[in-house]
Design a protein that fits this description.
The chain contains 14 helices and 19 strands. It is α/β, with parallel strands linked by helices. Among the domains are: 122 residues, 3-Layer(aba) Sandwich (Rossmann fold), CATH 3.40.50; 63 residues, OB fold (Dihydrolipoamide Acetyltransferase, E2P). The two termini are 43 Å apart.
């Protein structure tokens, strides 16, 4: 059967894509995946350090692997991702069962680290490189490695962040901003389109900072808005998404793309973090409440049907009840379709942990989080109910979590649509769905007609995917 690997990954979409890159490297090394831990010759845990719970999960996973390592001495264990970058050799010191540790910029070195582990040598690679070619140089997708979701693909366009928000550990774990050469990006997207991909999601920690000038950045790069326009011209690409942008870089040229580039989906995930200008200043977010609301107004003028989702931190040190109520009022004013909300989690080495700010009691932070999430469920359900009675194009992803023979996909506004069909529809195919119902989590509907498959068939519908 050959060598087997078991990969456990958690975190953001960038981490999900990095997990795909890791998997591809392992395919090229002759490994094949297994869901059974007992069958694995290599176990990799790919980590996230945005919240403390993710670190605790890693430590728990490594502890659980110790008995298996003791029983099967040939088992190799590696840890990658942001916690690996942050903790470095401390992980090797704390967990003797661990063979190697590698940061997000060191996936390319995975084969060498596995070779060292086979020779009973422990290794660490958490160095940074600001050379874009070296940072993004990985083998092409292995022909035996199936896409995670047919018809869709993630494409990394930049990594790192130069903004240093006071609560955020990303600049420490992902390094400074580095933009990938546009020629390489466009070549990858063309290849994806030729393979049947209809939808690409452009990834970066501050994705809309792509191409901005600073010392050390690849010369001659185009602006992010121009990158979107060029991708939109590639035959076969019908949907473009990106995540996560920063409000600081939402310039008029990018906003105009929502009015002028039909392939750009009518959805944006625009993190706000707080509705209080005072808290935003303490977070070093570089915009205030009025500026954020102004961006929202411009975006909705450019694309009236735009769906906006966001990130919100509750209980940042010094946040008063009045500050929190400003966040609630901003949520109502924007009418976010959805939000990812978390209690503030102090991260090692970030400025917020060193400032003399009044911490919020855990019980109060939890109360605020629950209040915010209750409001969001109401806003989400209202947004979904407004779609009932309409027809939407959906790119099929697979079986629905709701069960009952239902399938699911996503509409242009990035909402999950669960639907029934007389017979299963392959993932990667586009459908027209009549929306017949709504829940706080998804739209419900029925198939009207099949649009296309893998970008290779002419559609009988005059309905674009966006």
């Amino acid at each position: 059967m050959g060598a087997r690997f078991h990969l456990r990954s958690f975190g953001c979409q960038m981490n999900q894509h990095d997990a795909e890159r890791i998997t591809n490297v392992l395919y090229h090394e002759g490994y094949r995946p297994t869901d059974e831990l007992e069958a694995a010759d290599l176990v990799l845990i790919h980590t996230c350090s945005i919240r403390e719970k993710a670190e605790q999960k890693l430590y728990s996973e490594l502890g659980a692997l110790w008995p298996r390592k003791a029983e099967h001495g040939d088992l190799m264990i590696g840890v990658g991702g942001c916690v690996a970058q942050q903790e470095g050799d401390r992980l090797l010191e704390r967990f003797p069962q661990l063979d190697f540790v590698f940061g997000p910029q060191n996936i390319v070195h995975l084969p060498a680290m596995i070779g060292a582990a086979r020779a009973r040598e422990r290794s660490l690679r958490v160095d940074y490189s600001e050379d874009a070619q070296e940072r993004f140089e990985l083998p092409e997708r292995h022909p035996e490695y199936p896409p995670a979701t047919p018809g869709r693909a993630f494409v990394t366009v930049m990594e790192g962040c130069d903004l240093f928000c006071t609560y955020c550990v990303v600049p420490q774990t992902r390094g400074r901003e580095v933009s990938r050469p546009s020629a390489d990006l466009l070549k990858e997207v063309r290849a994806l389109a030729e393979s049947g991909v209809l939808e690409v999601t452009l990834l970066g920690q501050t994705v809309n900072a792509y191409g901005r000038s600073r010392p050390g950045m690849t010369k001659g790069e185009i602006a992010f808005s121009e990158l979107i326009r060029r991708i939109a011209k590639i035959d076969g690409i019908e949907r473009i998404r990106f995540t996560s942008p920063h409000p600081l870089f939402m310039g008029e040229d990018l906003i105009r793309c929502y009015a002028e580039v039909p392939e750009l989906c009518p959805h944006i995930h625009l993190p706000v973090q707080s509705g209080s200008s005072r808290v935003l200043e303490a977070m070093r977010r570089r915009y205030d409440r009025a500026r954020y609301l102004g961006i929202v107004e411009q975006l909705r003028q450019a694309r009236p049907q735009l769906s906006i989702t966001t990130d919100i931190i509750v209980g940042f040190p010094g946040e008063t009840r009045e500050d929190f109520e400003q966040t609630l009022s901003l949520m109502e004013e924007v009418a976010f379709t959805d939000s990812f909300s978390f209690k503030y989690s102090p991260r090692p080495g970030t400025p917020a942990t060193r400032r003399a700010l009044v911490p919020i009691a855990p019980e109060e932070a939890q109360t605020r989080l629950e209040e915010l999430q209750t409001l969001q469920r109401r806003l989400t359900l209202a947004a979904h109910r407004r779609r009932v009675g309409t027809r939407v194009p959906v790119l099929v992803e697979g079986q629905s979590r709701r069960g009952g023979g239902q399938q699911c996909g996503r509409c242009p506004q990035n909402r999950v649509v669960n639907f029934t069909c007389s017979e299963p529809v392959p993932a990667g195919r586009a459908l027209e769905i009549y929306v017949s119902g709504a829940t706080p989590h998804s739209l419900l509907g029925e198939v009207v007609a099949v649009a296309r498959s893998g970008g290779s068939e002419k559609t009988p519908l005059e309905l674009p995917l966006v």
